[in-house]
Amino acid sequence: xxxxxxxxxxxxxxxxxxxxxxxxxxxxxxxxxxxxxxxxxxxxxxxxxxxxxxxxxxxxxxxxxxxxxxxxxxxxxxxxxxxxxxxxxxxxxxxxxxxxxxxxxxxxxxxxxxxxxxxxxxxxxxxxxxxxxxxxxxxxxxxxxxxxxxxxxxxxxxxxxxxxxxxxxxxxxxxxxxxxxxxxxxxxxxxxxxxxxxxxxxxxxxxxxxxxxxxxxxxxxxxxxxxxxxxxxxxxxxxxxxxxxxxxxxxxxxxxxxxxxxxxxxxxxxxxxxxxxxxxxxxxxxxxxxxxxxxxxxxxxxxxxxxxxxxxxxxxxxxxxxxxxxxxxxxxxxxxxxxxxxxxxxxxxxxxxxxxxxxxxxxxxxxxxxxxxxxxxxxxxxxxxxxxxxxxxxxxxxxxxxxxxxxxxxxxxxxxxxxxxxxxxxxxxxxxxxxxxxxxxxxxxxxxxxxxxxxxxxxxxxxxxxxxxxxxxxxxxxxxxxxxxxxxxxxxxxxxxxxxxxxxxxxxxxxxxxxxxxxxxxxxxxxxxxxxxxxxxxxxxxxxxxxxxxxxxxxxx
Length: 557
Ligand code: FAD
What we know:
The structure is a single chain. By secondary structure, the chain is α+β, with helices and mostly antiparallel strands. It has 3 domains: 20-65 and 178-257 and 366-419, 3-Layer(bba) Sandwich (FAD/NAD(P)-binding domain); 107-173 and 259-357, D-Amino Acid Oxidase, Chain A, domain 2, CATH 3.30.9.10; 431-556, Helicase, Ruva Protein, domain 3. The chain contains 19 helices and 18 strands. The chain has helices at residues 16-25, 37-48, 77-81, 85-101, 119-135, 149-155, 177-190, 243-250, 319-332, 388-405, 434-437, 441-451, 455-464, 481-489, 495-502, 505-508, 517-528, 532-546, 551-556, and strands spanning 27-33, 53-56, 72-73, 107-116, 145-147, 164-174, 194-196, 199-205, 216-221, 227-237, 258-269, 278-281, 290-295, 298-302, 306-307, 345-354, 368-372, 378-382. Strands 3, 4, 5, 6, 11, 12, 13, 14, 15 and 16 form a 10-stranded mixed sheet that branches. Helix 14 (481-489) crosses helix 15. The longest helix has 18 residues, at 388-405. The protein starts with 15 loop residues before the first helix and ends with a helix. The relative contact order is 0.15. Bound molecules: flavin-adenine dinucleotide (FAD). The site of flavin-adenine dinucleotide has 39 residues, from helix 2, strand 8 and strand 16.
């Protein structure tokens, strides 16, 4: 039976050096390439079935698409409109599963959907929402409700009244995509998985008994520059938009499977719109729907959806993307007059859509596809954050089948992840500790919300050294002890790993956390053994890493 996140491994990712040592030394049943949500889910599913699992991520965990989503665990009304009933049903069902496994990390949120101008649209959406509730087996905490103009204005003051016919309120869930990925990985480590970030797969090992079959991967450690091989019986590719590149490492003639579609979000201060409900606005210039989501004390607005052909690393938002999103909101809230100068940060992500492209990316399916190559690789393309657990199940079911066919014993053949609570967000009674109680209420609340049970560990760090209880930047609740925790327990290797992913300082601070870079590099250096030269190089590298999030940079381009 799986260990339900009981040991200390569940609350720390442990030292990267120890994981690397094991990757070099041990043989694995399952090697996962990619440490976004898809790879993390596969690692947890495999490890909890008793497989020896290794996972390799070329950058930081979740640094690809899995940190750039709209942060929704949702069925997706849009996909219903495209008649993707199976996907919508699976996603709606997963909301309940994930909410049960990690309450506090996956939270219900009311979504307001106003309708302007067209009675036909009102009727169509009413039917759509009935179907949405039906596909969720009528289980939402609040089934959708119709709202009149007054009801809408109470929830979203400032909404344009001209043409406003009424609307709806329905429920979906919000999460923190990076934290979800880290908690799934943390739980996988608790179940025995071995993982490393900055470990890039650059080739496949094919020297086994069967000619042409993959029996491992060639890895480059991007922190030390060393290369080594890791051996695994089944290699699974969960490389998101990089999948085609990985397939070509195996077979240079492999046909492309992925169509990257860019989606941009921007963050504005909460008080610019001034409400705490989420909105789904039908006011984009091209008639698409745009989300406005209360997020981390600010407001997240997104997203665009366009074909993308540029470099896959760090895709950039453009001035047109910003204009599109601001215009979408300003059309619904004319008095808000959002300007580019209101934008605190931006981020662009690439959807790993399946298939060659024709037609708008908005109409392309969000379903995932699992397939095998003649060399024995298993690969997964497409999918959603919401459905990562079911995607992982499909991949590991196939891997287990292949392992058993090859005569290997597998402890558990069935998926167990619907009953394994997620890391520091497992449903346990909230514990108060003297270290936490000693912190100011705002810091305490922030730590509990952001780190679940690990809030106590961060409070203990702040207690050891009181200056670590100080804020990283003015105006945000994050404290320096989070940086120590990120380096010590969450495998953060760079300043951006700490400030752009484990904490969201880069997205929530108008200066992207720049004034703190030198101090954060110093703190991380203490933990990771950097000398003075290295510490200063890491602080400078941060400037490069965060340019993509900076609104000023985009408006200047
Ligand atoms: P990624 O997160 O990109 O992970 C792939 C990883 O593989 C990367 O970290 C990469 O570095 C690594 N990798 C690649 N090559 C190698 C190599 N050679 N060696 C080692 N590692 C390698 N879904 C939802 O459910 N809800 C939403 O609200 C939502 N909003 C979205 C909004 C936008 C704008 C976008 C773009 C997507 C959104 N999605 C949403 C979809 C969801 O974010 C993605 O489906 C999901 O994050 C993809 O995860 P992944 O692990 O497959 O890919």
